[in-house]
Amino acid sequence: MEEPARSTLIRAAMKAPYLERDEEHDLAVRWKSRHDQEALHRMTTAHMRLVIAMAAKFRGFGLPMSDLVQEGHVGLLEAAARFEPEREVRFSTYATWWIRASIQDYILRNWSIVRGGTSSAQKALFFNLRRLRAKLNQNAGLSSSDMYKQISDTLGVSEADVALMDSRLSGPDSSLNAPMTDDGGASDRMDFLISDAPLPDEVAGDAIDVERRSEWLAAALCALNERELRIIRERRLRESGATLEALGERLGISKERVRQIENRALEKLKAALLKANPEFDEARAA
């Protein structure tokens, strides 16, 4: 919205007549029951000064006033759609919450490329931190840690959240591809980020290797008979492998016999794997 259009809107809003309680109720009933567009227009026009006043309270976040007014108007229309005139509440009282919520949501979505205020506590922190900080700054000698402690107690958030939000509000977003110095040096912020996490190609490679090995093992297990397969699964393929003694009791054989069957099964598995993948044997010989 350009400046002339905004000025026209503000003048029109200020000239719009106030609605008496009975008239407002009648318009709300007409809109609710018959979707009377003229009634909606008169209701919203009469309350645009409320939208403008609410938008003015959020000018300090650096977003265009015209955009704040437009978002507030969206909230006003939402309030009109949800308003229940039979509750005997003035429309301005009901609409105030929706106007404020719409403007605040717009600010949270556009103030920074990093989304903040995703919970009600974080939202309260975002919109109240500056005011509380300015109030506490009047106390001479109050340290940052004491200030964060008082703000966290007031808003019900952690001190770490207060410190993080304070740092975010203290400066604009910075691109990771921006140079570290003003002389156009080769290094940018991305070069100084350190991560111990594996690279994406390493993650993909590991996933492929795990899947391939699982397929090889599943094929090799087909070479075992039923008892050998059970012993290998109980002893080698479970997080907590069964003991030789416990497995022997379940199978009705001695633990030494279980050991012998297990060793024979492992040899059969090895042979099956090398037969399906002879390059492993060649690599080992080399």
Structure description:
- The protein is mainly alpha-helical and 286 residues long.
- It has 14 helices and no strands.
- The longest helix has 22 residues, at 200-221.
What would the keywords be for this entry?
286 residues, mainly alpha, Four Helix Bundle (Hemerythrin (Met), subunit A), Arc Repressor Mutant, subunit A, 3 domains, 14 helices
How are the SSEs placed, and which strands pair?
Elements: H1 3-15, H2 21-34, H3 37-46, H4 48-56, H5 65-82, H6 91-110, H7 120-136, H8 144-155, H9 159-169, H10 200-221, H11 226-236, H12 244-251, H13 255-276, H14 278-285
Helix pairs in contact: 2-3, 4-5, 4-6, 5-6, 7-9, 8-9, 10-13, 11-13, 12-13, 13-14
Name the helix and strand elements from N-terminus to C-terminus, one letter apiece.
HHHHHHHHHHHHHH
Tell me which CATH architecture of the largest domain applies here.
Up-down Bundle
User: Quick one: overall form?
Assistant: elongated
Helix tally?
14
CATH C-level category of the largest domain: Mainly Alpha
Q: Look at the structure and give the mean pLDDT.
A: 81
Helical content, roughly? 55-70%
Look up the CATH topology of the largest domain: Four Helix Bundle (Hemerythrin (Met), subunit A)
Class by SSE composition: mainly alpha
Number of domains: 3
Poorly predicted regions: none
The largest pleated sheet is described as: none
Strand content: under 5%
Total beta strands: 0
Q: In angstroms, what separates the terminal alpha carbons?
A: 75 Å
Please provide a brief summary of the model:
By secondary structure, this protein is mainly α.
